[in-house]
Amino acid sequence: MTNFIQALEMVRNNEGQPPEHAVQIIESAMAALWQRIKTNPDSYLMDRNEFALYNYYHLRYTSGPDAKLAQKATARFWNAHHGGNGR
After folding, report:
1. How far is residue 20's CA from residue 35's CA, in Å, rounded to a whole number?
2. How far apart are CA 85 and CA 87, in angstroms?
3. For 37, how many CA atoms within 13 A lie in the half-sphere containing its CB?
4. What is the distance between the terminal CA atoms of the chain, rounded to a whole angstrom?
């Protein structure tokens, strides 16, 4: 069974149409991740693998009703994993 990180790499590295099973895996993983973020909007901290997945889909969340939530989740990740310096 392929995990979402393996599936994400398959999709990223595919120059043509990505394998449907890989797309389904990362779509499902992203839906679950976004639900965790929405359930804990002020505290959920993504790990590095989750952030890689989120980063692949980040344009979905840069506008509209989820933009502020996405911005806060991104800031929490950077502050926790990079000392808040954005690097």
Report:
1. 23
2. 6
3. 25
4. 33
- Kindly state the greatest CA–CA separation across the chain: 38
Q: What is the DSSP string of the chain?
A: ---HHHHHHHHHT-SSSPPHHHHHHHHHHHHHHHHHHHHSTTT----HHHHHHHHHHGGGGSSGGGHHHHHHHHHHHHHHHHTTS--
Amino acid at 58: H
Question: Which two structure tokens, joined as six digits, stand for 28?
Answer: 């499902």
Give residue-wise pLDDT tens across range 28-73: 999 999 999 999 999 999 999 999 999 999 998 888 899 999 999 9
> How many Cβ atoms from other residues are within 10 Å of residue 70's Cβ?
20
